[in-house]
Amino acid sequence: MTFETLHYENSGGAARITLHRPHHRNAINRALLRELNAALDLAEAAPDCRMVVLQANGDIFCSGMDFDEMAKLADQVDLRTMHERTEEYMLTLKRLATSRRVVVSRVAGAVTAGGVGFVAASDLVLATPKATFALTEALWGLLPSNVVPYLVRRVGFQASFRMTLTAASISAEEAHRLQLVDYLGPDLDELERVIRIRLNRITPDTVSELKGFFRKMWIIDTAMEQAAVEETARLGASATVKENIRNFVEARMFPWERRSGQ
Q1: Considering only CA atoms, which of 173, 169, 134, 138 is closest in space to residue 151?
Q2: 113 contacts 63 by C-beta, under 8 angstroms
Q3: Among 128, 159, 101, 142, which residue's Cα sits nearest to residue 255?
Q4: DSSP 8-state assignment for residue 28
Q5: In what order do the strands lie in the sheet with 6-11?
Q6: What is the pLDDT of residues 192-233, one digit of tens each?
Q7: Considering 13, 37, 50, 141, which has the largest number of Cβ atoms within 10 A of its Cβ?
Q8: If DSSP states are collapsed to H, E and C, what string results for 146-211?
Q9: Which candidate, 117, 69, 125, places its Cα nearest to that of 93?
Q10: 260 band by pLDDT with thresholds 50, 70 and 90
Q11: Which segments within 27-162 are labelled E, that is strand?
Q12: Does residue 15 surpass a pLDDT of 80?
């Protein structure tokens, strides 16, 4: 299968999915979501695959929503359309979190907004000291509604609230302290080697049972997922948010700069 937004390789019991939109800061567009799900289909269909590794080319792991795509489609984005697009993203997070394969994110650069969702929904996260993490949605009048259920599960309520409210970037060391990052070190290959030795002892059936059991113990159910989708869709379809995104794409003007100039 040919992919345009990512690279896929299955070797040695691990399916490696590499986000590859370097000229778009590995931003999330509809094509990337569809290809990511197709790559997960391939990984889960491969009998020798025990682990899915999600990584990225370049210094940016993922910058979240593709503003260029959103600006081009702004006039077509109504509540129904935004709901559909948001649901695609939410279902992808659920797919990562409930896959029968162990999903491992390798982070060596910046992770922003929706990219944090990919990380938070992963089973294990490996990061180098160069990694950073930020939820920037509130700057644009949005909320990281889809990300928050998975982020709260990892780091707790107040840390998630603070990251959302301040939109500040946190370091890899802070992310490790908060348990957004599970393993921190300068050599991702070595970190992966160590955990693969342990993970190879666990069957896919046991992984599936484990994820299903832990999901029952937490708040991420169908009602929570739909509430998250509806909130993001409502805000994303608003005239204010669409104008904020269009002004940034066309004039590189941040919302607070425009407000201060009025």
Answers
A1: 134
A2: yes
A3: 142
A4: B
A5: 6-11, 14-19, 51-56, 102-107, 124-127, 183-184
A6: 999 999 998 899 999 999 999 999 888 888 899 999 999 999
A7: 50
A8: CCHHHHHHHHCHHHHHHHHHHCCCEEHHHHHHHCCCCEECCCHHHHHHHHHHHHCCCCHHHHHHHH
A9: 117
A10: low
A11: 51-56, 60-62, 102-107, 110-112, 124-127, 132-134
A12: yes
Mention every residue, 6+ apart, whose C-beta is less than 8 A from residue 73. 81
For the segment 141-166, the average pLDDT, to the nearest whole number, is 97
Q: Which amino acid is at 154?
A: R
Instruction: Quote the tokens at residue 31.
Output: 């094509």
pLDDT tens for 65-86 read 998 888 887 777 788 888 898 9
Specify the pLDDT at position 5.
97
CA dist 196 and 51 (Å) reads 8
Q: Which string of DSSP letters, residue by residue, matches 131-142?
A: -EEE--GGGGT-
Residue in 106, 9, 126 with CA at minimum distance from that of residue 55? 106
Residues 13 and 224: their CA atoms lie apart, in Å, by: 34
Residue with tokens 């107040």: 158
Query: Which pLDDT does position 74 carry in this prediction?
Result: 72
- Length in residues, the chain: 262
**% of residues, the chain, pLDDT over 90:** 79
AA letter at 158: Q
Distance CA 116, CA 109 (A): 12
Whether 37 and 51 have beta carbons less than 8 Å apart is answered as no
Compute the C-alpha angle 238/90/159, nearest 5°.
85
For residue 42 the two structure tokens come to: 């391939």
- Contact yes or no for 108/130 (Cβ under 8 A): yes
Whole-angstrom Cα distance, residue 62 to residue 22?
10
In sign, the C-alpha dihedral spanning 201, 206, 210, 211 is positive
